[in-house]
Amino acid sequence: TTETGRDFIRDVIQADLDSKKHSRIVTRFPPEPNGYLHIGHAKSIALNFGIAQEFSGRCHLRFDDTNPTKEEQEYIDSIQADVRWLGYDWGSDLFYASDYFDRLYEWAEGLIKTGHAYVDDQSPTEIRTRRGTLTEPGQNSPFRDRSVEENLDLFRRMKAGEFPNGARVLRAKIDMASGNINLRDPVLYRILHAHHPRTGTKWSIYPSYDYAHGQSDAIEGITHSICTLEFEDHRPLYEWLLDKLPVPSKPHQYEFARLNLTYTLLSKRVLTMLVRDGHVASWDDPRMPTIAGLKRRGVPPAAVREFVKRIGVAKANSVVDVGMLEFSIRECLNRTALRRMAVLRPLKVVIENYPEGQSEQLEAINHPDDPAAGTRRIAFGRELYIERDDFMENPPKKFFRLSPGTEVRLRYAYFIKCHDVIKNAAGEVVELRCTYDPATKGGNAPDGRKVKATMHWLSAAHSKPAEIRIYNQLFVNPTPDAANFVADLNPQSLEILADARIEPAIAESNSSEPVQFERQGYFVRDKDSTPDHLVFNRTIGLRDTFAK
Ligand code: ATP
Ligand code: MG
Ligand code: MG
């Protein structure tokens, strides 16, 4: 943030409003529909839509659909759903760059007529190798000095579909010796015989990002065109084109640092490969950093907005600790999630002095900080489940939970003590024989005796079975190598607990609201869940446990 307590972009906008350079702010979020949105896009969405809200302006949702070989309707639909889920609304301001194809084409002919563009017959490889490097100027194309008539004729024939893919391109005629490689006669149009989701087979040529983007901004009257830092070096080209073309407005481009997060990769290219090659189940796999993945995992949209606000908007790239995102998620869920009990890895407990065939209802509170959330009743009986990890037959010194001879509290219920350990033929503990103290009902002993642990539990007869999916980081490396990401994948990113038990109240409600399973974390019903096979996702544990 700056001295004003805002970021540099908001400072610019305030200054532009104060100086009356603009009377109303218009921003845009311009995704290419070639994949699902990820949390990096959420930063851009929150910035562009947030600015429109704060300054009473507008924010357009514009699909940058200029590359038909990679774009699909599924992505267009998911992007709209994800922006809405994040809590933003473009109203009637929904646009497609493809709606401007006719105008962009006319303007390109205009550039040819004014001597600012030419058709180049070099192959893509020749164009690349003759572009030069940072230290070496590029070489002029042998086709650079074609006449206007020849250029127009060839460009029209490119449009008419007379040439195969890659045979020719239209290039801006700027400066092959420019220190900025983006100004070395950048490509404006390429030949592509491809079906476009919106324009069908009308076009055999498609505009480049650089040509389409700024002109779309100008057509829509965008005042502040905000993009990520990689485009800083494209700004001179953005401005060159606006200057040479009869555009109806002159937007200005500003760049901010893209979001990078530890233990993940925010790149549609990588995320596409993760899905395509089966490293994850789908775009909305809860391990994915996609908005759809976060949603399915149970992350509230408010937590994403809060996170994006916390990290702020800077002009230098950095990698944000995923712990910051997790902090926002926990903070948000702690406020809202109702408390429930679930036993993820059950171990049977028989209370020997509890009468057979009987049970009772005990009262449990739904939220410790919110009395208005009320209470619920949970069943207690002779056969219970506790968490397998909460018992040790030969505990080390600091282990205060259940072990032979120790007494512990079962939350909202009674003190119990373990007497016998029953094992199977393999020597694994399969059941504990315990007794309870009826005088400790509600969790306190009238004689004032204390216990060192309080554990969650469920009645065997009343609880319901469920599958619980635990998600760990998708990558083992805090900064995975995007070029060789498969080597950095975490083989333990998904852990399935097939025999968990949950409170009947959760099983019966159809709610997809997040819940806290006490001592375990935050959970949400997965879309795979059916009444006969309940499935819950762990959104996040209660504490930060993974190794830093
Ligand atoms: P990727 O690199 O993942 O393919 P992209 O930039 O190609 O992303 P677009 O669909 O073009 O994806 O992005 C739409 C908008 O979102 C752009 O303005 C882009 O700058 C912004 N954006 C993309 N990734 C991030 C990120 N990690 N952090 C912030 N903004 C981002
Ligand atoms: Mg892009
Ligand atoms: Mg990209």
UniProtKB/TrEMBL annotation:
<feature type="domain" description="Glutamyl/glutaminyl-tRNA synthetase class Ib catalytic">
    <location>
        <begin position="25"/>
        <end position="319"/>
    </location>
</feature>
<comment type="similarity">
    <text>Belongs to the class-I aminoacyl-tRNA synthetase family.</text>
</comment>
<dbReference type="InterPro" id="IPR001412">
    <property type="entry name" value="aa-tRNA-synth_I_CS"/>
</dbReference>
<dbReference type="GO" id="GO:0006424">
    <property type="term" value="P:glutamyl-tRNA aminoacylation"/>
</dbReference>
<keyword id="KW-0030">Aminoacyl-tRNA synthetase</keyword>
<dbReference type="GO" id="GO:0006425">
    <property type="term" value="P:glutaminyl-tRNA aminoacylation"/>
</dbReference>
<feature type="binding site">
    <location>
        <begin position="258"/>
        <end position="259"/>
    </location>
    <ligand>
        <name>ATP</name>
    </ligand>
</feature>
<dbReference type="InterPro" id="IPR011035">
    <property type="entry name" value="Ribosomal_bL25/Gln-tRNA_synth"/>
</dbReference>
<dbReference type="GO" id="GO:0004819">
    <property type="term" value="F:glutamine-tRNA ligase activity"/>
</dbReference>
<dbReference type="GO" id="GO:0005829">
    <property type="term" value="C:cytosol"/>
</dbReference>
<dbReference type="InterPro" id="IPR020056">
    <property type="entry name" value="Rbsml_bL25/Gln-tRNA_synth_N"/>
</dbReference>
<comment type="subunit">
    <text>Monomer.</text>
</comment>
<dbReference type="Pfam" id="PF03950">
    <property type="entry name" value="tRNA-synt_1c_C"/>
</dbReference>
<dbReference type="Pfam" id="PF20974">
    <property type="entry name" value="tRNA-synt_1c_C2"/>
</dbReference>
<dbReference type="InterPro" id="IPR000924">
    <property type="entry name" value="Glu/Gln-tRNA-synth"/>
</dbReference>
<feature type="domain" description="Glutamyl/glutaminyl-tRNA synthetase class Ib anti-codon binding">
    <location>
        <begin position="337"/>
        <end position="437"/>
    </location>
</feature>
<dbReference type="InterPro" id="IPR049437">
    <property type="entry name" value="tRNA-synt_1c_C2"/>
</dbReference>
<keyword id="KW-0067">ATP-binding</keyword>
<feature type="short sequence motif" description="'KMSKS' region">
    <location>
        <begin position="265"/>
        <end position="269"/>
    </location>
</feature>
<feature type="short sequence motif" description="'HIGH' region">
    <location>
        <begin position="31"/>
        <end position="41"/>
    </location>
</feature>
<keyword id="KW-0547">Nucleotide-binding</keyword>
<feature type="binding site">
    <location>
        <begin position="38"/>
        <end position="44"/>
    </location>
    <ligand>
        <name>ATP</name>
    </ligand>
</feature>
<feature type="binding site">
    <location>
        <position position="64"/>
    </location>
    <ligand>
        <name>L-glutamine</name>
    </ligand>
</feature>
<feature type="binding site">
    <location>
        <begin position="266"/>
        <end position="268"/>
    </location>
    <ligand>
        <name>ATP</name>
    </ligand>
</feature>
<protein>
    <recommendedName>
        <fullName>Glutamine--tRNA ligase</fullName>
        <ecNumber>6.1.1.18</ecNumber>
    </recommendedName>
</protein>
<dbReference type="InterPro" id="IPR004514">
    <property type="entry name" value="Gln-tRNA-synth"/>
</dbReference>
<feature type="binding site">
    <location>
        <position position="209"/>
    </location>
    <ligand>
        <name>L-glutamine</name>
    </ligand>
</feature>
<dbReference type="GO" id="GO:0005524">
    <property type="term" value="F:ATP binding"/>
</dbReference>
<dbReference type="InterPro" id="IPR020058">
    <property type="entry name" value="Glu/Gln-tRNA-synth_Ib_cat-dom"/>
</dbReference>
<feature type="binding site">
    <location>
        <begin position="32"/>
        <end position="34"/>
    </location>
    <ligand>
        <name>ATP</name>
    </ligand>
</feature>
<feature type="domain" description="tRNA synthetases class I (E and Q) anti-codon binding">
    <location>
        <begin position="454"/>
        <end position="526"/>
    </location>
</feature>
<keyword id="KW-0436">Ligase</keyword>
<dbReference type="InterPro" id="IPR020061">
    <property type="entry name" value="Glu_tRNA_lig_a-bdl"/>
</dbReference>
<dbReference type="InterPro" id="IPR022861">
    <property type="entry name" value="Gln_tRNA_ligase_bac"/>
</dbReference>
<keyword id="KW-0963">Cytoplasm</keyword>
<dbReference type="InterPro" id="IPR020059">
    <property type="entry name" value="Glu/Gln-tRNA-synth_Ib_codon-bd"/>
</dbReference>
<feature type="binding site">
    <location>
        <position position="228"/>
    </location>
    <ligand>
        <name>ATP</name>
    </ligand>
</feature>
<dbReference type="InterPro" id="IPR014729">
    <property type="entry name" value="Rossmann-like_a/b/a_fold"/>
</dbReference>
<dbReference type="Pfam" id="PF00749">
    <property type="entry name" value="tRNA-synt_1c"/>
</dbReference>
<keyword id="KW-0648">Protein biosynthesis</keyword>
<dbReference type="InterPro" id="IPR050132">
    <property type="entry name" value="Gln/Glu-tRNA_Ligase"/>
</dbReference>
